[in-house]
Write a sequence for this structure.
């Protein structure tokens, strides 16, 4: 691009003006700028003119990062009439804290994590059908960061904060088929009731994923939905088509938060998990047969 600088002004050539008048080109420029700057540095793009505002707003809303308080505000704004904010989101990252609290207290926390996630799952299922990237990271709020009164005994504060896994199950179940980059990192803070099982929801997502990172408290072979047929002598037929043909990276972190008692455990033995366990065993046999032995 050519031009002359006069203070902060810039003189564009006719070819430059043609490019900048093209919506697609301008949106690509704004997207590249958004990818390499903070939200604060990107905001002046909204103030150039009405055209820039409309295009920059789409770019700004395409990649959203929310924490507990901002997630609460986001959920309230999406309930407003004619709100189209959620339709534009292509990347959603949740950086959330689960607070420790007094087990004997009947006072609800300011932002109960399970309620936030369940409300968000309804919005994702209804309005975020273009979502491509989803990331959930949960950490605990240190006791020292809590606003405790002088009459509160810190020894009564639970050493293991958590949130119901039912909210996580609902959230993963709400993700659209367009989502191909998934991160679920609860640090192990989700707590499972009898019969709750996240693995089938993971299995539903795997075939369409390109990148997947996982750290949860409970896991079993059902998170990989293997076909019944295999090259194993106990099964009929040959190897099937790849289960995850698009997958380029897979990370399963088995190290939970230091405040969690114990490590990753196996999911409850549900009747529907047993066939999957058998298929997992056959797949391991297949892998051993197809993997060259090192010498």
């Amino acid at each position: 691009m050519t031009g002359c600088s006069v203070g902060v002004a810039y003189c564009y050539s006719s070819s430059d003006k043609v490019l900048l008048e093209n919506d697609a080109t301008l949106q690509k420029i704004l997207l590249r700028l958004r990818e390499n700057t903070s939200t604060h540095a990107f905001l002046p793009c909204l103030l150039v003119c009405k055209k820039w505002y409309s295009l920059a707003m789409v770019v700004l809303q395409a990649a959203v990062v929310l924490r507990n308080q901002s997630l609460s505000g986001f959920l309230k704004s999406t309930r407003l009439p004619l709100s189209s904010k959620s339709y534009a989101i292509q990347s959603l990252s949740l950086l959330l804290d689960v607070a420790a609290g007094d087990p004997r207290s009947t006072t609800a926390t300011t932002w109960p994590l399970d309620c936030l996630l369940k409300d968000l799952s309804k919005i994702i299922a209804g309005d975020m059908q273009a979502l491509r990237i989803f990331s959930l990271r949960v950490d605990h709020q240190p006791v020292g960061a809590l606003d405790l009164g002088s009459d509160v005994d810190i020894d009564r504060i639970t050493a293991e904060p958590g949130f119901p896994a039912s909210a996580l199950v609902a959230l993963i179940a709400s993700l659209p088929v367009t989502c191909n980059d998934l991160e679920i990192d609860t640090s192990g803070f989700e707590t499972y009731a009898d019969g709750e099982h996240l693995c089938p929801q993971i299995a539903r997502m795997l075939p369409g994923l390109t990148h997947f990172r996982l750290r949860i408290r409970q896991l079993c072979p059902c998170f990989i939905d293997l076909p019944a047929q295999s090259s194993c002598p106990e099964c009929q037929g040959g190897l099937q088509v790849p289960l995850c043909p698009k997958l380029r990276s897979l990370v399963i972190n088995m190290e939970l938060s230091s405040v969690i008692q114990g490590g990753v455990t196996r999911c409850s033995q549900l009747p529907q998990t047993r066939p999957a366990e058998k298929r997992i065993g056959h797949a391991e046999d297949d892998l051993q047969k197809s993997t060259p032995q090192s010498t």
Observations:
- The two ends are 59 Å apart (CA to CA).
- Residues 81-100+111-142+160-224+243-266 form one domain.
- Residues 218 and 265 are 5 Å apart (CA to CA).
- Residues 102-110, 143-148, 152-159, 271-295 have pLDDT under 50 and may be disordered.
